[in-house]
Amino acid sequence: DVKVTQSSRYLVKRTGEKVFLECVQDMDHENMFWYRQDPGLGLRLIYFSYDVKMKEKGDIPEGYSVSREKKERFSLILESASTNQTSMYLCASSLQTGGGNQPQHFGDGTRLSIL
Amino acid sequence: AQSVTQLDSHVSVSEGTPVLLRCNYSSSYSPSLFWYVQHPNKGLQLLLKYTSAATLVKGINGFEAEFKKSETSFHLTKPSAHMSDAAEYFCVVSEPGQSKLIFGQGTTLQVKP
After folding, report:
1. Which of B36, B52, B100 sits opposite A45 (nearest CB)?
2. Phi-psi bin for B84: left (phi > 0), alpha (psi -120 to 50), beta?
3. pLDDT tens for the 113 residues of chain B, in order
4. Considering only CA atoms, which of B12, B63, B3 is closest in space to residue B35?
């Protein structure tokens, strides 16, 4: 079974702090994704990466950056945390194929509160 | 442009009765379609996927979905609801060659004893 592990289930930080959310997958997947999930807004894609050191902006990248130095690890960085970044953050990974589409496999999420 | 609409934000059924969660999609190409389930404070788990093989797709936990191109629908069904099925369900679409997924807004399934 694919395992996507997010380093923290719950995290509380203060406004202005630099926050790191870590995600590791164990299935050698090429693609990795960061989403945030908010009530009434569903899942929104922040960033994704299709290879080491490669990244693409998603739908809501403002205020975030990412790092992918190793294939199995994808980090989400809040450069200067603000209260409107309080949310559930979900990491996912998938295989990269040229033909049919592969499902994404999700971690259990990090519930981040910015005070 | 691809999009997905879940027609009900909330569905309530009694334990042992059938479940129907409705999903319509819009896609320029032959899409891949997925259903995911999310239990409280957990990540999303794949229930089933359609990728242009059989139109009736069977998934885990007794769920299945039927791809109907003429109706652009991919409704999720289960013959008999169980209390453990109470969760949020997401219908998801992607197009060939695309790694990104487009998520519906979700349907909350309530199962009453």
Report:
1. B100
2. alpha
3. 678 999 999 999 999 999 999 999 988 777 889 999 999 888 999 999 997 778 899 999 999 999 998 999 999 999 999 999 999 999 999 877 777 888 999 999 999 99
4. B63
Query: Nearest-5° angle of CA A6, CA A103, CA B33?
Result: 135
| Cβ-based contacts of B90 with chain A (< 8 Å) | 42-43
- Is A1 or A100 the better-scoring residue by pLDDT? A1
Residue A80 φ then ψ, to 5°: -150, 95
What's the pLDDT at A82?
97
Parallel, antiparallel, or unpaired for β A64-70 and B32-38? unpaired
Say which amino acid occupies A72: E
- With contact defined as beta carbons under 8 Å apart, do A30 and A38 qualify? no
Distance from CA of B44 to the nearest CA of A (A): 6
